[in-house]
Structures are given as C-alpha cells and as structure tokens.
Design goal:
The chain is an alpha/beta fold. Helix content is about 25%, strand content about 25%. Strand 12 and strand 13 form a beta hairpin.
C-alpha cells in the first residue's frame, strides 16, 4: 500500500459535518482524508434550487468561519458557496466522486477500499447523512419516469398536472413553487392538516392557497396507484382517479442501513432503526468507528441538523486524542 494512503482517520461523507470532522482532525494534528461519493456537500447540492434554510446562517457555520448571507436565513446557493470557501480556507484533504466499497480490519487497522484507491487508517468516521435513499411508496407504477423522489426546479413542471405527496417542508415548497410557475397542483396528505414543522413563514401561504382553491388537497388520503396518465387516490370518499402528468413523492429519505451493517454497526430493531453509538464519544459498537451528523438518528431524521450536530466533530476528535494519548 502506498505510504500516502495511510492516515489516522478516514471520514466517509463530504457534507458540512464530515468537513467539520476534517477541520477538527487537522487542528488536532491528526492526518485524515475525507471520501465523498458525490460532489462537495453533495446533499445540499441536490436540495431544491430555490430552497431557504430554516436555520440562520450563524448556526450553519463550521471551523469558526463566519457565514454571511444576504438575509437572516441563507439560501442553498449561499450555503454551497460558503462550504466551498471553507474547504478552500482549510485546504481540506477532500477526495470527491470516490465511493467506499468495502471496509476490513487487519492487524488492528482498517483497510478501506474505494472505487479509486485503498487506505489504511486507525479510525473511521461515518458522516453519510440520509438523503440518498428515498422512502418508497411500494405501490403500482412508482417506477414510472413521471415519478420523482427529488425535486429541483419548478420551471420543468409549468402547465403540467402535478401531484405532490406529503405535508412537510419539501412537499409544501414543491407545491407552492410549481403552482406559481403555472402547474395545476394537487396534494395528497396522510394527515388531517399541513405539517406543524413547515417553515413558519411558509405555512400560512400554503394554507391560504388551499383555502382559496388554488391548490387542491386530499387530506387523510394516500396514493394507491400510478399510471402513465392518471393516479389513483385512496380517501375517505373512496377511490378517486385524476388525470396526472407528474408525481413528486416527497416521502422523505433514510440512511444507508445496509452500508452501516456491512461495517458491523448494530441497528436498533424498533421503527427508528438508530445505529448503536455512545452519545458522548460518538463511537459505535465497532471499536474505532464513529458516527457524526444526521445518520445518528436512523429513521428519525428530525433529531439532528447541521446546527446541533456540529459538536459531534469535537466529541469524536477529543475521544481519539484521549485514546492516542
């Protein structure tokens, strides 16, 4: 193995928390490499183009670098620029478009094989988030090209009949934005009202659009089937079939549990499926493997955010320093 591929720490995931872990390692004098299967802050890049964060910019800061935005709550484009500048400021050892394929242990060290290289490390930090695997509906027609689990830009849906599934921020943003670009929008919501976690400056907007009839909504309902030109809705009124061009299934996402299990990390058997870890040190049941960021919450993806999981980086590096003496 090449000497340059031997590090103290390998960090899987180049999002804000993975970068924060790299900064903490660098400040502690530990050698590290960040391996990211996509682009820098890949999840943020794949957020809707017009997204505004719920958090204020100061709560998204890492490495002590000020995040100055035009408004109190920054946009996706401002966040991308901020984290890019942070990566440049610290000259982070960040390998992009590199996928971890296997991890094995040999003589007390971890051997990490990727699609580009091999690494020998003492410690691994998993900071992979949860945005890569959508929660499926498991209904007929879900695999049709008209069904999207990711929403990017509203222009694409102009003058189209769009059905949006869900009642939280991503669903409401997609419904309002596509409506304002000329789409005929219908929402299907399992609950009896718009989600309470919807951004407080957006919630009145969607409620008013529903009240005035601009956006049709089926509460206490679910999508039961999708065909090329129609969708079938199960509601308290029975089965309803409507004409449809696109389905935006904003049903949420989940961590890559199969990858965590391949690492040997235990997953709880309840519906939260939380990966086992010490909340103080962030070390998992696998000695030398740590978790950081939203992946810690398992299916409960509303526990951890950038603002409250930044501290994970400090906890992990402090624990590694204590172990190494």
């Amino acid at each position: 193995m090449k000497l340059e591929n031997i590090y103290d720490i390998l960090i899987i995931g180049g999002g804000p928390i993975g970068m924060a872990c790299g900064i903490e390692a660098q400040n502690a004098g530990l050698s590290y490499v960040i391996v990211e299967k996509g682009c820098m802050v890949n999840s943020l890049y794949n957020y809707p183009a017009n997204m505004t964060f719920f958090s204020t910019s100061d709560k998204l800061e890492i490495g002590g670098v000020p995040f100055v935005s035009n408004n109190i709550k920054p946009t996706r484009s401002e966040a991308l620029e901020y984290y890019r500048r942070v990566a440049c400021k610290f000259n982070l050892n960040l390998n992009l478009f590199e996928l971890v394929e296997s991890v094995n242990k040999d003589s007390g060290k971890y051997i990490v094989h990727t699609n580009k290289s091999d690494y020998q490390v003492k410690y691994i930090i998993v900071s992979t988030g949860f945005y890569d695997i959508p929660n499926k509906l498991n209904i007929p027609g879900e695999d049709l090209p008209k069904v999207r689990h990711y929403y990017k830009d509203p222009h694409y849906y102009a003058k189209q009949k769009v059905l949006v599934i869900g009642s939280n921020n991503s669903s409401v943003d997609a419904a309002l934005e596509t409506f304002r670009k000329g789409a005929e929008v219908c929402m299907v919501i399992r609950e009896s009202e718009i989600g309470e976690r919807v951004k407080y400056w957006v919630r009145p907007d969607i409620i008013n659009r529903i009240k005035e009839g601009s956006i049709k909504v089926y509460f206490n309902s679910s999508l039961s089937a999708i065909s090329e030109h129609e969708v079938e809705i199960s509601s308290h009124e029975g089965k309803i079939t409507i004409v449809n061009d696109f389905v935006l299934a904003m049903t949420g996402y989940k961590p890559d549990f199969s990858f965590l299990k391949k690492l040997g990390i235990k997953i709880s058997t309840d519906k939260q499926q939380r990966p086992e870890h010490d909340p103080v040190t962030m070390e998992t049941n696998m000695k030398g493997i740590y978790l950081a960021g939203v992946v810690c919450g398992g299916m409960d993806t509303h526990i951890w955010f950038i603002e409250n999981s930044r501290v994970h980086a400090e906890r992990i590096i402090e624990n590694i320093k204590l172990i190494d003496g």
